[in-house]
Design a protein that fits this description.
Helices cover 31% and strands 25% of the residues. By secondary structure, the protein is an alpha/beta fold. Helix 1 packs across helix 6, helix 2 runs parallel beside helix 3 and helix 4 crosses helix 5. The two termini are 27 Å apart. It binds nicotinamide-adenine-dinucleotide.
Length: 252
């Protein structure tokens, strides 16, 4: 039985993961971590990982960037493998996550879905060719009105995948409101829409002369992220220290 601690257990994703793990015969949530206990979980809830005395094989995190410093401190003490799904981390926090991976197994992905991880591969394949042919690359993402970071971690990860495939790296333009100049051919522009309960939509737009190619992914439910996180936790439990990503879990 794989024993899981769920960080951010009382949030929306925490609820989806809890439901999914209940149906898993070889996995159980033994404790949750959250700054507010909604009283709905069957497992005990602690205010931080350091305060949690329950032994576990792996931590799944769907909380927020604000929770990261406390989570990293707890993981440094306990050395439990962690699946990090929270987005919007600062440069300092990303550095701290890299440092942590020298002490325990860390799997971090801005998007746990099979579709987006497949999209990373497709973008790496087509971007050099289309850029060479003069296509401009823009990323449009849409999310629900509760989301606090913009652009989404997934949008940045999509741009990073494109840049991985390019000899000359593209710069990222997050805001054009103060720029009075035509776009640079070597830039990737981002646009973020926030509204209603949109789960998550990402379009990578390749705009050429007289033709446009759009590679698009739409998440219809949060279950795809929870499913990916559960698969990642199964993969990571018992793994040695190191930095892993969803490419290690899904065979795409
Ligand atoms: N990687 C992915 O595939 C993926 C998919 C969906 C969401 N996310 C990310 O997961 C995170 C959570 O999303 P959500 O929609 O569930 O948000 P949410 O706001 O509904 O839930 C976040 C939970 O974290 C808790 N929290 C805040 N500070 C904490 C702390 N210091 N310690 C422990 N818990 C704390 C909050 O009380 C809340 O219950 C966000 O960063 C989101 O962008 C990632």
């Amino acid at each position: 039985m794989i024993k899981v601690i769920l960080n951010g257990c009382c949030g929306v994703m925490g609820g989806v993961v809890t439901e999914l793990v209940e149906a898993e015969p070889e996995m159980e949530i033994v404790a949750g971590i959250d700054i507010k206990d909604n009283g709905k979980t069957e497992y005990p809830v602690f205010g931080s990982l350091s305060e949690c005395s329950v032994p576990a094989d792996v931590v799944i995190d769907f909380s927020s960037a604000k929770a990261m410093d406390s989570l990293i401190a707890g993981l440094k003490e306990k050395k439990i493998p962690v699946v990090l799904c929270s987005t919007g981390l600062s440069e300092e926090q990303l550095q701290a996550v890299q440092e942590l991976s020298k002490e325990c197994a860390v799997l971090k992905s801005a998007n746990m879905s099979l579709g987006i991880n497949l999209m990373f591969k497709v973008l790496k394949m087509i971007s050099p060719m289309l850029s060479e042919a003069g296509f401009d690359i823009e990323i449009l993402e849409k999310h629900h009105h509760r989301k606090i970071d913009a652009p989404s971690g997934t949008a940045i990860a999509l741009a990073d995948a494109i840049n991985d495939s390019m000899e000359e790296k593209f710069k990222y333009t997050f805001d054009r409101s103060s720029i009075r100049a035509a776009r640079d051919p070597k830039e990737i522009g981002f646009a973020a829409v926030r509204g209603g309960n949109i789960v998550g939509e990402h379009d990578v737009i390749y705009a050429g002369t007289d033709e446009v190619i759009t590679i698009s992914h739409q998440a219809a439910s949060r279950a795809i992220f929870a499913k990916g996180a559960v698969a990642a936790a199964k993969f990571l439990a018992g793994k040695p220290a190191g930095f892993y990503d969803m490419g290690d879990v899904v065979n795409v």
